[in-house]
């Protein structure tokens, strides 16, 4: 059974001048032809989002929302009503965040990180009470595994991030690039699983794979510039802004390149041999 709030790939059963019909279980749903690919044809599959419109009817659209049910997104409040805040999420009907589901009073024009979930009737709604949806203890991730992260908040320790729409994790302050913002989505890697099963995250690959990547970054920069005025005493922020590497990984990579007689070192920086 198709549920509102999710994306599906559905077969096209009819194409007319103005509409495209897709088969959704036992129901046919009509989509404006102008919103579909120009070469759409009967028998093809079409990626659509299922939602409930203002008339309480199930509809399909080729406009894919910023998040579907069970996902997180950074959304803007378009208006405030008696039942809550209405958030723009990329489809025709704005998403309601009821007042009891807000961790702070929402204001029109502001953006908030929310989870798309369902109310008791199965309709998609939003909640900014994120803690109730997140797990803190790892159950299936491994060190070095590639993950998707969404930046949640910044603390003295670094950035709190949401991993794979499931876990709360930490990106340490020394690894936080200066351009990272709340709501940003990035590819990241599991840096460490602590004894209490909490998760630490890195933006670059960890271990030998991360050092190998860093070597390539450094060599590419040296080939372009001829000399890098970076060294052991350079501030972590400078290394991060110039190369996108943490100081720890930078030092390991430089040490390996020096040992392999690929670069030479002096007090001002490094250069190719």
Would you mind describing this structure in some detail?
About 15% of the residues lie in helices and about 40% in strands. It starts with 6 loop residues before the first strand and ends with a strand. The strands form four sheets. A five-stranded antiparallel β-sheet has the order 3-2-1-4-5, with no helix packed on it. A five-stranded antiparallel β-sheet has the order 8-7-6-9-10, with no helix packed on it. The chain is built from three helices and 18 strands. The longest helix is centred in the last third of the chain and has 19 residues. By secondary structure, it is mainly beta. The protein is elongated and about 70 Å long.
Write a concise synopsis of the structure shown.
With 273 residues, the protein is mostly beta strands. It has helices spanning 207-225, 236-243, 247-259, and strands spanning 7-15, 19-24, 27-32, 45-52, 58-61, 72-81, 84-88, 95-98, 111-118, 124-127, 146-154, 158-163, 167-172, 185-193, 199-202, 227-228, 263-266, 269-272. A 5-stranded antiparallel beta sheet has the order 3-2-1-4-5, with no helix packed on it.
């Amino acid at each position: 059974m198709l549920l509102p709030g999710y994306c599906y790939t559905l077969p096209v059963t009819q194409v007319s001048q103005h509409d495209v019909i897709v088969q959704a279980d036992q129901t046919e749903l009509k989509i404006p032809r102008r919103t579909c690919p120009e070469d759409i044809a009967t028998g093809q599959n079409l990626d659509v989002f299922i939602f409930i419109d203002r008339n309480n009817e199930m509809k399909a659209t080729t406009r894919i929302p910023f998040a579907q049910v069970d996902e997180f997104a950074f959304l803007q409040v378009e208006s405030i009503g008696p039942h809550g805040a209405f958030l723009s999420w990329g489809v025709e009907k704005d998403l309601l965040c009821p007042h009891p589901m807000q961790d702070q009073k929402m204001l029109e024009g502001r953006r908030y990180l929310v989870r798309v979930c369902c109310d008791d009737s199965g309709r998609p709604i939003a909640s900014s009470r994120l803690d109730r949806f997140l797990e803190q203890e790892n159950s299936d991730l491994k060190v070095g595994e590639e993950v998707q992260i969404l930046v949640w908040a910044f603390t003295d320790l670094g950035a709190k991030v949401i991993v794979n729409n499931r876990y709360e994790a930490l990106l340490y302050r020394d690894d936080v690039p200066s351009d990272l913002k709340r709501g940003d989505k990035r590819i990241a890697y599991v840096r460490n699983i602590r004894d209490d099963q909490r998760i630490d995250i890195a933006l670059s690959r960890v271990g030998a794979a991360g050092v190998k990547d860093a070597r390539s970054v450094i060599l590419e920069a040296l080939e372009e510039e001829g000399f890098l005025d970076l060294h052991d005493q350079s501030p972590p922020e400078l290394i991060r802004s110039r190369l996108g590497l943490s100081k720890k990984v930078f030092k390991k990579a430089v040490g390996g390149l020096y040992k392999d007689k690929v670069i030479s070192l002096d007090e001002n920086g490094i250069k190719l041999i």
